[in-house]
Every structure is written in structure tokens, then in C-alpha cells.
Write a structure and sequence with these properties.
- This protein is an alpha+beta fold.
- It folds into four domains: about 80 residues, 2-Layer Sandwich (Uridine Diphospho-n-acetylenolpyruvylglucosamine Reductase, domain 2); about 140 residues, Uridine Diphospho-n-acetylenolpyruvylglucosamine Reductase, domain 3 (2-Layer Sandwich); about 110 residues, Alpha-Beta Plaits (2-Layer Sandwich); about 130 residues, 2-Layer Sandwich (Alpha-Beta Plaits).
- It is built from 20 helices and 21 strands.
- The strands form five sheets. Strands 14, 15, 16, 17, 18, 19, 20 and 21 form an eight-stranded antiparallel sheet that branches. Strands 5-6-12-8-9 form a five-stranded antiparallel sheet. It has a four-stranded mixed sheet with strand order 1-2-4-3, covered by helices on one side.
- α9 runs antiparallel to α12.
- The longest helix has 18 residues.
- The radius of gyration is 23 Å and the shape is globular.
- It starts with 8 loop residues before the first strand and ends with a helix.
């Protein structure tokens, strides 16, 4: 039926379903079909068709897909995968005065980076997968990268959104003044109804929402109900709800992105440490002195680099024989400004913490440290064999920085209980870590993965962290959201889902109604 409704393509062959059954996660889910819309009008028709079908007793669901780099299973569905990367990829002109660019959701990050770089600008989320990921997926996951320490995640770098809701119509979302919000609330339309229901939900549950706001620098678990009111700016932005919602409330079609100036000068310092006892104090010192980037990688990562990237490992020889590396990069309009900040941090770490700090002047050495950090997962994945496989399922944790050293020790102990080899790297300046184990392929592997997932989530929450940061909830973490938030907040999430998606058409099983059994059954070994 859809073939007759849209200009684009519908595929249901075994080959097409196989091609869209995987992303960068540990899961494999075969879709019913694959839709490739030619334009927004096609996307509207797909949504209207699925909504009408479900209104009359059907059971369809749709999930948009962009670059396929999601590590939580976000775009995987037993329903219809909607590939927005093929045609919905218009890249607008940069507004150099306002430092913004308008893009369709299918645009790839690398294309934004190329256009922005030509004008001395960057799109700051700057993920490790930036050469392959798309803006729609970044918005869906609220992704971020090494520059989020100063620029925040994707949500901080989006001005406006256009979104298709369950009625199949496109709506614009942007920050609203109180007067503008009042006008929305008075609309006797579907849009007005959504605003009224959401404002009522927020008002009636203000204290509950405030109480359960994770006290970490970044969080992508659940729906971002605490982010809709900006008390400082005195604006209300319902569009913020779609960022990090994994397309469970609507499908983003267009975004106005904020760009920032590319810093002309950088200075790196590197601390290679023997144990994690001083980790928190070292990171705090680097962050306190306004580092733009503060990253880490462990000795397993470095040992893999010695095998796979020997030239980079040789450049980064400070890491040899050390437990882990922490590096900070400081920026300035002049090299002197960057050096002053880096020098202040270096002096305090050496004099007060009695740790060795390496001053990195060589661009090649700087590049090698960053490459080893970025390739941590890739290097482990290259060790896949018939017996073992790199499995990212506990790769998106965050805890308050003051608990970080203790947390990492306990996390390593859990992995040792299962005799798992692993690497970790991450945005340590914010307390975020990317730990990925190399898992034995056996008949019990799926059970082991879910057991470790539960233990690690318990640990994260014991340290008042969040189980989801940049890669979002997806298939792997949605079943554990009640563990983080409790039943009352989960009830609110269900209410939000029902307000926007009463016929459950958008990306079913993510954010709400995900189960451990479904996750376990779809682990791809």
C-alpha cells in the first residue's frame, strides 16, 4: 500500500531487511520493511498511513535511521525503518552573522563540519563518530563529544526544530516567551492541545521532576522534562523534549544549528598515572583551569595501539607502562593565552599533587594521543574472532566527578569477576566513561551481558550517576529506567509518550515499554 502513496522507495526483501537489522550496538532486529522517503511530503504520508492503520486496530511502528552509528539500538525496529539519509539531506547556507545553519535531519555531521570549517566555525558536539553519523541521530540521542566540556551536548547547540508529529503534520518548535506560550496554549488545534497537556503535566509534577533531575553534567536517560523551562532566559521550549527522545515522540525533519568559532590556538598537557588514586584531583585541576577538552584512555587501549597503530603509540610513549592517561587541551585566541592556562594547571598538578605532567608542543604527538583515544573501541573491535567479540553495552555511564576514582575501581572489579578484557576511554572531564568489554561467544553470553548490565547500572546509581549519557537508552537501557527514576517518573514518561504518540507509532520499545527479555533475545553474537 505504501508503494502507491509515496514517491520514494519501499523495500521488504530479505537483503533489505538484513541490511537494516544492525547499527553499532550489540543487537540485531529484522524490520518488517524499509521505507526511503523522497521528501518531507513522503514522510508525512508514511506517518499518516501508520497512524490510520493503528487507529483501526493495526500494530505498526516506524523508526527513522540516519548514519546507523547508534550504540544503543535506537533505530532498530520490528516495524518499518525509515531511512532519512538518502534524500532528506539538504544543507543550507551558513548565516555568518548569527552563526547558524539550517539542515535537514538526514545531513551527515561531516558535511556540516566541511561547510562550517570553511568559515572558521565548528558544530561543537563533535562526536567520535562525526565522519559517519547524521544530525537526525545526534538529535535523537542528544549526542556529544570531546568539546562538550565547554559547549555542552547537541541540545545546547540547536536553536530551532521542525518535527512531524503523529497527525502527519510538520510543526516548528523554538524557545517561546511567556506571551508566545500563552498564544500557543490558546490554539484550538492539535498543537495547542499538546502544549496545554504538557504545561499541565509539568505544573502538576514540578516537585517530582525537580527531585529526580540527575545531578550530573550530562544525561540522556528518559525524557528531559527538567529542560523545557529555562528559568534564566524565561523561555519555554517544547522542542527540547525531542532532543534525546530517540524519535519516540515525533520525527525531526529540520534543525537550525548553532555554530561556534574554531579556536585558533591549543596547548596540550598529558598526565600518565600509575593508579587512579589521584584521578579525581588531576581532572578537577584541568577542568578548573578552563580546559576545552579533558579526555582519558586506559592501558589496555594503549597496548592495542602498540599493536595496531605503532607510530601513534611511539609518539604517545608517555603512556607506556602506565595505568591510564588523562590529557587536557587548552584553547586561546593566542598561543600565549592557551599556554598560560595549561601552565597553571601543570604547575598545580606537579606541585600540589606531585604527579608528572608532560607538555606537548608537537602537533604529531598531540594528534597521536587524540587518535588513540578516539580509536579505543575500533581497536578492540578489530580483535573480534570466532571466540570473542567487542560488545558495547556498558559504554555510556556518567557519575559525579568527585566519585570517579572510586567508581572506576569498582567498575573494573565487576569486569574482573567475569574475566573480561576491556578498554575504556571517555570524556573524563565530565565524569563520562566508555568501557567496552571483549566478550566470550558462548550459549550463555546473552545472560552474562544482561547480568553485567544490571550490576553496572546498580553501581552507577549508587554513585548518583546516570546510566545514559550520549548514546541514549535504546534497547539496552530502556528496561532499566525505572531503576534510575522510580515508578512515579516512569508514569510521567508514559504520559508524555501518550500525549505525543497515542497510537504508539514512533520507535516502539524505546524510552518506555522496553523489556530485558526483548534485549536479551536480540543480542547478536
Amino acid at each position: 500500500m505504501l508503494n502507491n502513496l509515496i514517491k520514494g522507495e519501499i523495500h521488504s526483501s530479505a537483503a533489505a531487511r538484513e541490511a537494516y537489522s544492525k547499527d553499532a550496538s550489540i543487537f540485531k532486529v529484522y524490520p518488517l520493511a524499509v521505507a526511503i522517503p523522497h521528501d518531507v511530503d513522503d514522510l508525512e504520508k508514511i506517518i499518516q498511513y501508520v497512524t490510520t492503520t493503528n487507529k483501526h486496530g493495526g500494530n505498526l511502528t516506524i523508526a527513522p535511521r540516519n548514519g546507523g552509528t547508534c550504540m544503543s539500538g535506537g533505530p532498530l525496529t520490528e516495524g518499518i525503518v525509515v531511512d532519512i539519509s538518502r534524500y532528506l539531506n539538504l544543507l543550507g547556507e551558513i548565516d555568518s552573522f548569527h552563526k547558524t545553519i539550517v539542515v535537514q535531519a538526514g545531513v551527515m555531521h561531516r558535511d556540516i563540519e566541511k561547510a562550517a570549517s570553511a568559515q572558521g566555525l565548528i558544530f561543537a558536539p563533535y562526536t567520535s563518530s562525526k565522519d559517519f553519523c547524521g544530525i537526525g541521530g545526534m538529535i535523537g540521542n542528544n549526542a556529544s563529544g570531546e568539546l562538550s566540556l565547554i559547549y555542552g551536548p547537541t541540545s545546547n547547540n540547536v536553536a530551532n526544530l521542525k518535527v512531524l508529529l503523529s497527525d502527519g503534520k510538520e510543526y516548528s518548535f523554538k524557545p517561546l516567551t511567556r506571551k508566545q506560550l500563552k498564544q500557543k496554549l490558546e490554539l484550538m488545534t492539535y498543537e495547542g492541545e499538546i502544549y496545554r497537556k504538557m504545561v499541565t503535566l509539568l505544573k502538576e509534577n514540578r516537585q517530582l521532576i525537580k527531585t529526580h533531575h540527575p545531578r550530573v553534567t550530562k544525561n540522556a536517560a528518559g525524557y528531559a522534562l527538567w529542560e523545557l523551562w529555562d528559568q534564566h532566559e524565561q523561555v519555554f521550549n517544547l522542542g527540547r523534549l525531542f532532543i534525546g527522545a530517540q524519535a519516540t515522540l515525533g520525527i525531526v525533519t529540520e534543525a537550525t544549528l548553532k555554530l561556534v568559532d574554531k579556536s585558533p590556538h591549543q596547548q596540550m598537557i598529558v598526565c600518565a598515572i600509575d593508579s587512579i588514586d589521584q584521578l579525581t584531583d588531576i581532572v578537577r585541576t584541568i577542568v578548573h583551569h578552563n580546559a576545552s577538552i579533558c579526555e582519558t584512555f586506559d592501558h589496555h587501549t594503549y597496548e592495542l595501539a602498540q599493536l595496531q597503530y605503532p607510530a601513534d603509540a611511539a609518539n604517545a610513549h608517555f603512556a607506556n607502562g602506565k595505568h591510564m592517561v588523562v590529557y587536557g587541551i587548552f584553547e586561546g585566541d593566542t598561543i600565549e593565552q592557551a599556554e598560560i592556562l595549561a601552565g597553571q594547571a601543570k604547575n598545580i598538578i606537579e606541585q600540589s599533587l606531585h604527579a608528572t605532567v608532560h607538555w606537548v608542543d608537537s602537533p604529531d604527538v598531540k594528534s597521536s594521543f587524540q587518535a588513540i583515544r578516539r580509536y579505543s573501541y575500533k581497536m578492540l573491535k578489530d580483535m573480534n574472532s570466532d571466540l570473542k567479540k567487542a560488545m558495547p553495552f556498558i559504554e555510556d555511564t556518567i557519575v559525579p566527578l568527585e566519585h570517579y576514582g572510586e567508581f572506576v575501581s569498582a567498575l573494573e572489579a565487576i569486569l574482573q569477576d567475569y574475566d573480561m578484557t576491556y578498554t575504556y576511554a571517555g570524556h573524563i572531564g565530565e565524569g563520562s566513561i566508555r568501557l567496552i568489554p571483549l566478550v566470550n561467544r558462548t550459549s550463555k553470553t546473552a545472560d552474562t551481558i544482561m547480568e553485567v548490565e544490571g550490576r553496572v547500572n546498580d553501581l552507577v546509581l549508587a554513585f548518583r550517576g546516570s546510566i545514559s549519557v550520549d548514546h541514549n537508552d535504546g534497547i539496552i537501557r530502556t528496561p532499566y529506567l525505572e531503576q534510575q527514576y522510580g515508578s512515579e517518573m516512569i508514569s510521567l514518561f508514559h504520559q508524555v509518550k501518550n500525549i505525543f504518540d497515542p497510537y504508539d507509532i514512533f520507535n516502539r520499545g524505546k524510552k518506555v515499554n522496553g523489556t530485558i527479555d526483548f534485549a536479551r533475545a536480540h543480542i547478536d553474537l
